[in-house]
Design brief:
Radius of gyration: 16 Å
Structural class: alpha/beta
CATH architecture: 3-Layer(aba) Sandwich
CATH superfamily: Alpha/Beta hydrolase fold, catalytic domain
């Protein structure tokens, strides 16, 4: 509960590249039905740089934080944005908890393979280049807030796997998430596009939000 209002904390979902609110309806509807004010943040990587998107997210969190406590869910690239804005903007009201869902902490093998392709560069812009560059990924620090790491392991690991032959969710490998960095972790048997709306993930988030 928010000490100022007595209401449950707001839920802020920062989406991945190409994500849209309707795709997150199961999660957002679940928390809305339980009295949480829910917010969704998306962006157009083909039109906005990483820094521009981060600045918009910072302004959005400043406004949301002014209304009461909130938890922050960063899905895929959204987790990187969440970490970046929280460490770059110490003036922001911090979330009570951060959830990193299928969010890499190292550059992605898949993005490194196609980073020079014109179509990839056009669709993902500067954000895609961040995902392909380990130096830029490592430059994003980890905020001093309680954090849960959630990752998937139901991806293909055969010879032609985009994420490599180690356990992965089809796009991001466990090595690229690096759950060893975190104390609170959850592994789910799910593919990357479906992790954020899986029942196990929603219930794990709720247990920590309401606990």
């Amino acid at each position: 509960m928010s000490p100022a209002t007595g209401n449950p904390p707001q839920v802020v979902f920062v989406d991945g590249i190409g994500g849209r609110r309707f795709l997150r309806r199961p999660l957002l509807s679940y928390f809305a039905a339980r009295g949480h004010a829910c917010h969704h943040f998306d962006y157009r990587p083909s039109r906005e740089s990483f820094d521009t998107i981060r600045a918009r997210l910072g302004d959005r969190l400043a406004a949301i934080g002014g209304q009461g406590s909130y938890v922050l869910i960063g899905y895929s690239f959204g987790g990187l944005l969440a970490r970046s804005v929280l460490t770059a903007r110490p003036d922001l009201p911090p979330p009570t908890r951060l959830f990193l869902v299928a969010s890499p902490t190292h550059s992605l093998r898949m993005c490194r393979m196609v980073s020079h392709w014109p179509l990839f560069r056009w669709l993902t812009g500067d954000c895609g280049q961040v995902l392909a560059a380990d130096a830029r990924m490592q430059a994003v620090a980890f905020p001093a807030v309680a954090t849960m790491c959630i990752y998937g392991t139901n991806g293909y690991t055969g010879r032609f796997a985009l994420a490599g032959r180690t356990p992965n969710d089809g796009m991001v490998s466990v090595e690229e998430v690096d759950p060893r960095r975190f104390k609170d972790i959850l592994s789910v048997r799910a593919m990357h596009p479906f992790i954020a709306t899986s029942r196990a993930v929603i219930e794990a988030i709720e247990s920590r939000v309401s606990g």
